[in-house]
Structure to design on (1750 residues):
């Protein structure tokens, strides 16, 4: 049997979104519910894919099916498409699986031509309206289907009104519109060299093809890329009988939500216009009335609409966003969909719907997009202040939240300003580990270079600092401590504002308001936690981060990056001595200097976490990352070490690597310098013993060995840890448990997970590195490559931003199965950035990990995503 | 039941090498054959492993088993170990699975002490011999078991002889030896603070422990590393009743091969000494006689030995290397093993044994080590000239063969000298792709930096040039065109010699002789080819290489690296223009300049290969590898392009990558610059059409896309290739087949092999990169890491040098299974360096690849290894 490419509204239903698009599936569903929907049919997304992959031609088969559907629609309406006497007019709209601005939207009144318009004028008794409709159709069709520039028509209309001395469209008579129709048709002819198409069928096929083509246009591209919508989805086309809100005072059109999308309050919320078409509401020429007023204007219609809204809400079990038209006193529903809402509203609606008995708790948990919770955890701009402000630039929304403060250009200056009590925005070409403290004291960070996974972006997200990155439009003058952007110059101390959720940059102060986490949040997250199977831990390197994460619901730390502790001003010189000294004895001495610092850090973290589990990773980055870059720093260090700057530089040079990501780092450092692992183990164990003695907390540190690829190297490093730890514990006379496990971030470790699990008590998937190695793609170097791949439609977006379930996922699944086969109680977690990404969390649930770990600010998101994954897993 | 750690010679047999070591298993086998073997027992390799992993203590269990074995040996010999009246004396020798110099070798006469020596003197009636034996034992035991420095004893003996006015040991009387025994015991006491051990059991346990410990000593370590012997194997210990060749003129000792190990001639070959112990033969104090003379000295013994030799040869079906002792007219066999031999001899013996009906052809194929064939394919030094020469230095034997020539320090100078007809040795700090031509015209290459997998090493092996790499002892003066090494200074034009098989460097001319491939080679390889299943192809980038590989038996080309073609003097400027130009149009113009060159190359290769398959890989390395390094070159290029040097440098800088191995290379280049793939496809197809027209060869080029990790990128590049190729073929009017496939070198491609195989007609495993990615280890940066890993016993050697069957192997097996599941006739090959490594080839046979591809000079090795793998696979 041939593929079915066209569905009547009565043939589909709400579950067919993938095939019919969101709008179309809901029109079918409303039809099925017996609601007043102008009937029509849908050309499927599969037809779109076929169209775009076969030379942009509508196949004869598809055309045939459209013809057949149109014949049925003619019967339903008792009119004929393209008829001279009683013509059927339709709208043509795109409708993808997800709502997609940037694509071809709507053509109204399709089917009109020079004879049909006469018939419509006669049949309606309203020739002014008929010619108005025809000129609208000519303009829309020419603009969105054919691509004739819209302003040509607008300019012509303005000119006509000027000549006539008219001020408003309302001044135009039937004859005026008739004259304009002739003028518009001439514009078309001048532009295209052919007459405006008079055959209704041709108009229809052209319009449907244009919708399909618009799936391929650059704006749609950009939107899909930003919203992770695969190109394969395609769009459907809705062909629907026209109804008119502009037939007089018993007609009108409006949009409304079944509840307040800003607050969640349970009351119809929306606007309408009497005697208008939908585009008039959008155009903003007339001020619409509040939906409540419809109750006075047309009480019966209002009641009917309110009842439909409630029915739809009950049917969809969610707040609805609806479009309607009233034609000569008859209500028509043109659209319904689940309404977009703020995070606050989302929580209130979810909690209220449970209270109303409409949803179970589990159903409610599925109603909130985890990513939206971000809004609740970061400062936002005051709405009024924001409306008044105009951005001076825009770059990548690297870390959410709003920030306002004085600009400073170095970490030092930022720290000094913060110490004076100033609010600070740190502006840097790009950040490096040495900027950590400066970032920490800042409200927000703005960088000229770097993407969504740059150092600035990753660290800022971890800290919960607002960050806008990669603003290449900035002209920096670092010496002068100033920059220019959007035509303005900004010097040290000038105030700017950043929106880390949109990437907007403002050259002025905008009031921010701190987020309030109110009651609904706790109730809602309680439901989520009840159903969740996956544990949620946090990645935290400081007691502050640890405490915040616990407040956000973290159940432990999945990753303490010990290297971050060494960039502190006091410590980095000792670290550098450790790296550049000549003998093991000198290195041990330098490490002994570092030990008290590291121990103090761990005590702070243990105390913050009380008895929750803490996983500490041994030193990971290549040592050259800790070395100075500036001559001045080399000289200081040389003086300290009693060497020459040249000697140190030579040594530093010898540490250079061609591919540092695949170089001397991770457990390879512990193999070369066991004394580093010894020092870190001492700090971990001594701190735990000390906290146990002082506070009575029973801590069982989890010591994690990074970059393992072979059972023997794991065994070697584990042996160092065990001999050091066991001795300390024995000497202390205090009973202390500890565990030794490994990161799984080298493909070979995943492949040999059954062997690795013989020595490792736990695995934590380091999916950042694992993804890069599995793809053979360095994120640091991927910028240009990804641009080309995305531009050429090979990748939808950065393939490393979400867990690659196909490739890396196969490896993880293998590692989970093999690991548990060798050690049934193996504890499995993930601590890459994917640990805070909802779709990745769903995958972690599927393959049966024990926990995910993410930055503190993503903990609530992870809790919710894990809950949703658990519920979806049951289905 | 308890583990059995000790075997009497009568309990074992020749198949138990893993447990009993090679020497021990053969002693058991000879015992079983009823040959005259001094009886004894073997402490197993498992006991060694237990000893070294449990604190270097002999367990009570093992000691008990040794005691029991010794009791049996006492019964066999009718003597008692440690007895005052009739003491049993034994030798203690190490014996690993493979022969291993560098380990503790031998302690003779164990069981002697102050009273036993008296009994031996009395019973033998030869007190001089008894005390001589005792002093030898004290020295050996102190030296090899306890670690007292040997020269202390030697000095003492010299002093004693001097005082006595003796010239030779023969001058010493029984009393002299008795006096020396006392002096030696004093040396022991002075050194150790205790008396020389008098209890035979203690001596034995000490000696056995010392053998086990010697498995762990640095020399053994180095040897294992060089010979790929796993640490886990351990060594066995042979404890054997002493027999004496130094009891008078009816005694003697010798070593002999059953055939000539240099030529393979079928005649006993070896030496013996009358009235001597084995160590005297080795010491070289007396000149031994040829084994043939034993027929005159002791005809009966000679006949007995010759018969035993033939029996052993028949029994082992191989040439034997034997040790024997004659004690008072009785022959004892002390050892037999398959004899080491030259490649020439190996082939002759194999061919002869088949002719003699002793071996089947398949058995003969297994008798030759594939690696040995290297000797047959490269020049070697004339034996006499080599013996007279003394190396001035030694570095890594990076590419086999011998070379002699005048040193030059730049590729230009080397080319100029070669053009003058000189023989050239190219000496470089390290080589880069720009040196290719210089390397090509040289006899050998010597580098200061770089390991076995450095650019110099890899390219030299590919070209079959001798190369010694990583000679850090060289002090280079590049400006002055000179270097110093081993105390000598060498300037441009001075003659040196290199041995690429040993790594030796000589500061003088040594005559080399070209290899001769004679009849046995062809016969033998014919047998190998008959049984071989795997195809053998070659990696070749030039017609010369292709032709040579075909001579060596290559059945096609598995990898043409197109990038090597662009480093040619004429071409590199055009390549650089292509990379640094600003527009696609300029790039296409530059590519059009390159097209004729590339096409000519392919024509040459096709013509050389006739109709054998040729796999051509599209451009792979990151573009920055082609860019100039010197200012001068930038200026030349800038002049050529009408730009400034600064502009070009900025552009070049922008191509810099942090991790180039995981950067913009492979198929990613074709995605960014489809015009490159178009040009290369044109060259490939036009060349094939041209050769088909001119020569009538029916060529079906295999176009290989590198670095694929995703089905969509493969599809994208394949589409470029197909649209280009199909058009050219259609225009030509000539029928031409071609195939499109991919490298599997990114872990993700292996993981998703079922998807990749939907688009790829063939896979070629690029195990160089696949291994590095799977290990997360960059070979360029691995030097320091590997030193530490090997030093700490984590790796036995460079884990990337052979195919990592555990990790990478799992991935390959997965890819083979998944790939074939999606495309049953998928053609599978390997073109990494592992394609020429015998153990890796065996793995390729196991997982069912269709072919291996390796450098031309490794083709015969691969043919033989593939044949052996096929035979072993049948077992």
């Amino acid at each position: 049997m041939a593929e079915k490419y066209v569905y009547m509204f009565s043939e589909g239903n709400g579950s067919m979104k993938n095939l019919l698009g969101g709008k179309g599936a809901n029109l079918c569903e409303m039809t099925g519910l017996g609601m007043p929907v102008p009937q029509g049919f849908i050309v499927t997304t599969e037809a779109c894919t076929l169209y775009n992959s076969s030379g942009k031609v509508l196949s004869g088969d598809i055309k045939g099916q459209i013809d057949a559907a149109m014949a049925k629609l003619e019967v339903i309406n008792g009119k004929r498409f393209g008829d001279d006497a009683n013509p059927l007019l339709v709208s043509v709209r795109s409708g993808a699986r997800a709502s997609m601005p940037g694509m071809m939207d709507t053509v109204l009144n399709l089917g009109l031509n020079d004879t049909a318009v006469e018939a419509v004028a006669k049949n309606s008794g309203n020739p002014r309206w008929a010619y108005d409709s025809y000129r609208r159709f000519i303009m829309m069709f020419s603009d969105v289907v054919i691509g004739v520039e819209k302003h040509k028509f607008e300019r012509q209309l303005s000119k006509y009104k000027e000549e006539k001395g008219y001020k408003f469209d309302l001044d135009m008579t039937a004859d005026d519109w008739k004259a304009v129709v002739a003028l518009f048709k001439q514009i078309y002819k001048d532009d295209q060299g052919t007459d405006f198409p008079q055959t209704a069928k041709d108009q229809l096929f052209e319009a449907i093809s244009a919708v399909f083509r618009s799936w391929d246009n650059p704006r749609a591209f950009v939107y899909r890329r930003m919203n992770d919508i695969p190109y394969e989805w395609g769009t459907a086309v809705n062909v629907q009988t026209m109804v008119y809100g502009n037939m007089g005072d018993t007609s009108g059109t409006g949009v409304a939500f079944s509840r307040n999308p800003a607050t969640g309050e349970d009351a119809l919320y929306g606007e309408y216009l009497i005697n208008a078409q939908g585009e008039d509401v959008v155009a903003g020429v007339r001020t619409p009335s509040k939906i409540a007023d419809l109750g006075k204007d047309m009480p019966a219609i209002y009641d009917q609409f309110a009842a439909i809204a409630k029915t739809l809400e009950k049917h969809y079990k969610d707040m609805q966003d609806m479009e309607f038209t009233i034609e000569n006193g008859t209500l028509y529903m043109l659209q319904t969909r689940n309404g977009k809402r703020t995070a606050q509203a989302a929580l209130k609606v979810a909690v209220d719907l449970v209270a109303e008995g409409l949803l179970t708790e589990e159903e409610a948990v599925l109603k909130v997009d985890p990513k939206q919770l971000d809004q609740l955890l970061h400062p936002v701009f005051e709405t009024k202040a924001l409306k008044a402000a105009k951005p001076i630039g825009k770059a990548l929304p690297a870390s959410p939240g709003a920030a306002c403060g004085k600009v400073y250009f170095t970490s030092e200056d930022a720290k000094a300003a913060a110490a004076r009590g100033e609010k600070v925005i740190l502006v840097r070409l790009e950040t490096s580990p040495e900027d950590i403290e400066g970032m920490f004291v800042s409200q927000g960070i703005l960088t000229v270079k770097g993407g969504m996974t740059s150092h600035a972006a990753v660290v800022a997200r971890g800290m919960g600092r607002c960050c806008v990155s990669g603003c290449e439009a900035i002209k920096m003058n670092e010496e002068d401590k100033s920059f220019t952007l959007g035509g303005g110059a900004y010097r040290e101390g000038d105030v700017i504002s950043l929106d880390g959720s949109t990437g907007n940059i403002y050259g002025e102060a905008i009031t921010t308001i701190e987020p309030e986490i109110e009651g609904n949040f706790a109730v809602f997250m309680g439901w989520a936690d009840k159903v969740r199977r996956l544990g949620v831990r946090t990645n935290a390197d400081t007691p502050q981060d640890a405490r915040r994460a616990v407040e956000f619901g973290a159940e432990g730390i999945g990753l303490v990056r010990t290297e971050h502790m060494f960039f502190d001003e006091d410590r980095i010189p000792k670290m550098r001595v450790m790296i550049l000294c000549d003998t093991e004895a000198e290195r041990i001495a330098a490490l002994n200097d570092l030990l008290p610092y590291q121990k103090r850090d761990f005590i702070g973290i243990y105390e913050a976490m009380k008895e929750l589990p803490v996983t500490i990773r041994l030193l990971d980055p290549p040592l050259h990352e800790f070395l100075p870059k500036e001559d001045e720093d080399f000289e200081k260090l040389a003086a300290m070490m009693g060497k020459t700057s040249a000697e140190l530089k030579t040594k530093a040079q010898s540490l250079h690597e061609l591919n540092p990501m695949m170089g001397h780092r991770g457990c390879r450092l512990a193999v070369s310098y066991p004394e580093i692992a010894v020092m870190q183990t001492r700090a971990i164990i001594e701190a735990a013993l000390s906290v146990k003695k002082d506070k009575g907390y029973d801590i069982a540190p989890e010591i994690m060995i990074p970059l393992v690829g072979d059972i023997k190297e794991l065994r070697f490093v584990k042996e160092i840890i065990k001999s050091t730890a066991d001795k300390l514990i024995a000497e202390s006379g205090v009973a202390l448990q500890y565990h030794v496990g490994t990161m799984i971030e080298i493909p070979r470790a995943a492949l040999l997970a059954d062997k690795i699990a013989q020595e490792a008590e736990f695995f934590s998937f380091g999916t950042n590195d694992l993804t890069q190695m599995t793809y053979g793609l360095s994120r640091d170097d991927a910028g240009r490559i990804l641009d080309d791949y995305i531009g050429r439609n090979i990748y939808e977006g950065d393939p490393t931003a979400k867990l690659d379930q196909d490739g890396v996922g196969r490896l993880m699944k293998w590692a989970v199965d093999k690991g548990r086969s060798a050690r049934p109680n193996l504890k499995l977690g993930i601590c890459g950035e994917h640990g805070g990404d909802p779709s990745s969390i769903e995958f972690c649930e599927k393959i049966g990990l024990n926990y995910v770990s993410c930055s503190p600010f993503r903990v609530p998101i992870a809790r919710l995503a894990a809950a949703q994954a658990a519920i979806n897993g049951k289905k």
